Structure formats: structure tokens, C-alpha cells
Amino acid sequence: MKKHLLIIALIITFSSCKNKTISETTPVNLRYKKLLEYPLDSLALPRSINFKTNKIKTIKSTDWCSGFFPGNLWQIYALTGNDAYKNKAKQWTAYIENEKFNNRTHDMGFKIFCSFGSGLKHENNEDYKQIIVESAKTLSTRFNENIGSIRSWDFNKDVWQFPVIIDNMMNLELLFEATKISKDSTYHKLAIKHANTTLKNHFRPDNSCFHVVDYDTVSHQPRMKVTHQGYSDESAWARGQGWGIYGYTMAYRYTKDKRYLDRAKATADFFINHKNLPEDGIPYWDFNDPAIPNAPRDVSAATVVSSALVELYGYTKNETYLNYSKKVVNSLESKNYLLDETIQAPFILDHSTGNWPKKDEVDEPIVYGDYYFLETLVRLKAQ
Ligand code: GLY
Fold first, then answer.
1. CA of 212 to the centre of ligand 1 (A)
2. What Cα–Cα distance (Å) separates residue 29 from each residue in 33, 36, 79?
3. What is the pLDDT of residues 64-87, one digit of tens each?
4. Which of 182, 199, 278 is nearest to 238 (CA)?
5. pLDDT per 10-residue tile (average), the chain, 383 residues
6. How far is the CA of 165 from the centre of ligand 1 (A)?
7. Contact status, residue 26 vs residue 10, Cβ threshold 8 Å
8. Segment 112-144, tens digit of pLDDT
9. Ligand 1: which atom is nearest the Cα of residue 167?
């Protein structure tokens, strides 16, 4: 009798699970489904959740964050092999194409490379290649040969002449790849010039970096080194350190310039050994906020760095880097950071901080926190 009951129980269990692998029911995989189920809308890509209003903040393709949501679907496809994610990724990616002609921003890499570039890792799509090259051409129009940099922002013209932010390093991947696709070395050369100028002017003796360096358009020299999203001009804004670490690790991938590797290592060491980095590896939004330990965390800074350090480990074989990435994943897959299954929104992780000085997207789920988390998982899987 008992044996019969056991067989029936096994049949029921097997039939309810036969279309799933065990991993599809883990808390993180249950979050993936929320991204898949989110309704397509070319004018409303998800960016964050405002818990005060309980509303999802959505954006048009022009926003610097538009490429991350399509990129998240591509990366979940990479992790699960489930074609449903790939099909959705293609649909969302198509909504970003208009940006290839948008010369009013430096955020081309985030928009185009995180969407079309992520797609290109999974299919040899000629249209995607052309879009990446066209976008690189547009981004190149923001390069100033005398200063040796791409201009980041066009706003605040009464204060800044030619602002360059550390985040801008992230756009270089688009340029490096555009040269590989087109065989036109212009983009690669320009990326190197930008990386060299940033190397010279953005970093401090303690290996942290400034957020904004503003250049004089006549002398072509730095005229001020300030912050826009950090606590103060001299503080170490956590995500900014992440952009620097990721940017120089990636630039080393394409150039094998040892100065870039040394830069990435030194800033990574500053980050992971900082006395204000909490035990679980998820930094406060700025290492110098006097409110620490009561300051908000920034999951996105942790994931940018965890992804970069998987790559940096590949070049250095320094286990400290890989251990940091694994620690971050371990922390983020816990209930402290993972969004609860009952929250109907297309995000995975809580507790990112977008723009603390403007009190905008503080301690919320933000799409790029998820993007670099998923990229960390993809990179760890490939180890
Ligand atoms: N690139 C803008 C940011 O990191 O918030």
C-alpha cells in the first residue's frame, strides 16, 4: 500500500516538474519570469520602482538606461537557454535602434551595446552589427581631438565647458567592437585616446577617482574636478569607482596595455579593501558619506564591480577578485536583496542608489543593478 502511494506521489511530482528544471523554481529564477511577463511597449522600458508611489518608472529609448532591460533578457537567455527570453529580448532590443543617430549624449554604449551588443553574443545578426557601427560613428562626433576625450554631457553649460565623467569609460566597448566589426581603426584609436586622457586626469593618489573632470576648451587642460552624483567633490562615489574598474579592465581586454590593467587593479584594491565596505560586499552608495553605517547601499555599484572582477581575475589569477564577485552574488541571492516573489515588477534586486544628491532612485530596484548582476552570473558560469 505504502509503495503504491509513493509511486503515485512520484508520478504527480514528475508530471508537475517535467517542463521545468529544478533551478527554474529558485527565488532568483522566479524573478526572471517577471521580466518575461512584462508587457511590450516601445515607449515605456522599465527603469526602476518608486516604493513611495509603488509605481514602475518607465523610460523612452532616449534615456541612458534604455538598453539595460533588453540586455537583461539576453542575459537570462544566456543563463537559462530558454528561447522565450531570446524572443522577448529581440523585440525589446528593436525599440532602441533610433538611438544610433542620437548625438546629444555620450551614453551610446549603455544604450546600444547593452542591447544590440548583448544580442550579438547570441546570433550573427548583420543588422545589429551595422547599428553598432553607425552608433560608434555618431558617438565619435562628440570627440575633441585637442582635449583627447569624448564630451559626456551637454547640460550645465554655464558651469562646465567640456565635462567628462568616469562613466564615459563604459562607452569605449562600443567603439572597440565597432572597429572589430567594420575594420575601421578610427573608433579603436579614439577609444584609446579617451582612456589615456581619463587615466591622466581622473584618478587620485589613493587610487579612487573623481566623477567629473571639466576641461577648458581653449587650453584643453582640466579646469575643475568635481562630483555630480557623489557625496562631495573629494569623496569616492561607489558606482563611479565601479565604472573606472570595469572601464579599464575592459580597455585592457582590447589593448593589452599594462597601464590599464594596473589602473583596474589599483582601483579594485581601493574598493574591495576599503574600511567602509560592509562585510557582505555591498557598498554604501558613497564610501565617504558621514551617515555610514546608516547610509543607503548601492547594489548597482556592487554588481558593476563583481562583473568586472570576474574578468580581472581572468587576467591576474588573483583569487581575491573572484572571491569578491562570488561573495556579492551570494549576498544578492539572499532575501536581504532579492525582490520578493509577490512583487509584480520586472526587476530582480532591490537596494540600488541612482542619484543620492537629487534624492532620485535612492534604495530602489534599478535596471542596471540587475544588468551587471546577470552579467556576473554569465561570466561566473563561463569560468
Ligand atoms: N551614468 C550614470 C550613472 O552611473 O548613474
1. 11
2. 7, 11, 10
3. 999 999 999 999 999 999 999 999
4. 278
5. 36 38 76 98 98 96 98 98 98 98 96 98 97 98 98 97 98 98 98 98 98 98 98 98 99 98 99 98 98 98 99 98 98 97 96 98 98 98 96
6. 9
7. no
8. 999 999 999 999 999 999 999 999 999 999 999
9. 1
For the CA atoms of 306, 379, 361, 109, the dihedral, rounded to the nearest 10 degrees, stands at 110
| 133 neighbors 190 (Cβ within 8 angstroms) | no
Q: Is 233 a catalytic residue?
A: no
Q: For ligand 1, is residue 239 a contact (CB within 6 Å)?
A: yes
Substitution site in 64, 68, 364, 372 for ligand 1 pocket (most atoms within 8 Å of beta carbon): 64
Is 350 in the active site?
A: no
Residue with CA at minimum distance from ligand 1 atom 1:
167
Assessment of whether the complete model's pTM goes beyond 0.90: yes
- Degrees to nearest 5, angle at CA 175 with 286 and 40: 75
Pocket flag, ligand 1, residue 364 (CB < 6 Å): no
Asked whether 142 lines ligand 1 (CB < 6 A), one says: no
Which of 141, 157, 153, 267 shows the shortest CA–CA distance to 202? 267
What domains are defined for the chain?
2-381 (1.50.10.10)
Q: Is the CB of 167 under 6 A from ligand 1?
A: yes
Under a CB-based contact definition with an 8 Å cutoff, are residues 308 and 243 in contact?
no
CB distance 69 to 46 below 8 Å: yes
